[in-house]
Amino acid sequence: MASQISKRGFNNSGDPTMYEKYWKQMGERTTIVIPGWQSMSYFSDVKNLCWFLEPEFGKQVVRLHKVVGNAETDGRHIVVGTGSSQLYLAALFALSPANASQPMSVVSAAPYYSSYPSMTDCLKSGLYKWAGDARSFNQDSPYIELVTSPNNPDGFVRHSMVNKTGGTLIHDLAYYWPQYTPISSPADNDLTLFTVSKTTGHAGTRIGWALVKDPQVARKMTKFIELNTIGVSKDSQLRAAKVLKVVADSCEKTRTSSSSEYNESFFQFSYRVMDQRWQQLREVVNSSSVFSLPDFPPDFCHYHGQVLEPRPAFAWLKCERELQDCESFLRGHKLLTRGGRHFGVEPKHVRISMLDRDDNFRLFLKRLSMVQP
Ligand code: PMP
């Protein structure tokens, strides 16, 4: 990750610093104080299958999913992780049989999130191995398919692509929130990953959660986290719980009354910013013949109560010129992006983060508008 994160100018890593502005406006609402004697034990709730899950965090996760309508939580176990990254590895561990003769193949349709291959193979596990693009997977052995929806990097809504039996799905729904995409129905999958990083922008808190139907799978995921880190920071869970609570409050209070407490809900604010940024980006791209952007079909959003166009967290920009490598072409114009190769496709596409701070995004647009054909 370190090599993928740049300290210079525009980030190409999707660091969600755009949200700082909202949280500054919220002032002390999300401040928590943790006395020195609190949160000392390893254990949070010994009666829970996930014994290190802070009850208040679990409560706010369920509440927020109900308020937003983006995921079924009934009949699910919540497993908390140090980011959804840790939960991804926990899911691979839990879904791969311990006694198989071959490692389980792990696939995702290209373009896929660039960290999946390196995370999957970094320890050269005997349990699972990266097997590339789900569209070209043709082995008869069992497999795990990652379904990222909306997808990082291209923003499209996705479903499983491997047309075979014997597969297990992991749904990575990091971006299935109303600022990025219309919420069409509550996700109802066997194993779904979410993260506060993309929900509220608190990437540094390092908290994610999994909604897991099968208790055996949830138990194995919990075991993996126990073996790795003996649980997940309680301080972070308490902070995340508070942030999710304020988000859910902002949704409920703006819905039910003309609240003097919240002018707009967190998702109204963030959709508005994303909408504005996408319009500005499209203006720049449309006024040049060098680049193009994908179009997204509008859909009814049950959260916002209207038909809306998706406003993905990343823009998947295509270079229409004959170029070897769009990423280095843009770097020559002092624009840091991440090229298609990282995502398992040709280098004529690059991924642009739409979640940077206002100043950086503005400068990015300015420099992009100066790129000549
Ligand atoms: N999944 C996807 C699709 C992502 O884009 C990211 C973050 N870039 C993650 C997972 C990892 O999130 P976390 O910060 O929770 O580890």
TrEMBL record:
The keyword Cell membrane belongs to this UniProt entry's keyword annotation: no
Cofactor dependency: pyridoxal 5'-phosphate
Record domain Alliinase C-terminal: where: 12-370
Organism superkingdom: Eukaryota
Molecular function GO terms recorded: transaminase activity
UniProt key word Electron transport: no
Keywords (A to Z) from UniProt: Aminotransferase, Pyridoxal phosphate, Transferase
The family this protein is said to belong to: Belongs to the alliinase family.
Quaternary structure and interacting proteins, as annotated: Homodimer.
The name this protein goes by in its record: Tryptophan aminotransferase-related protein 2 isoform X2
Organism: Ziziphus jujuba
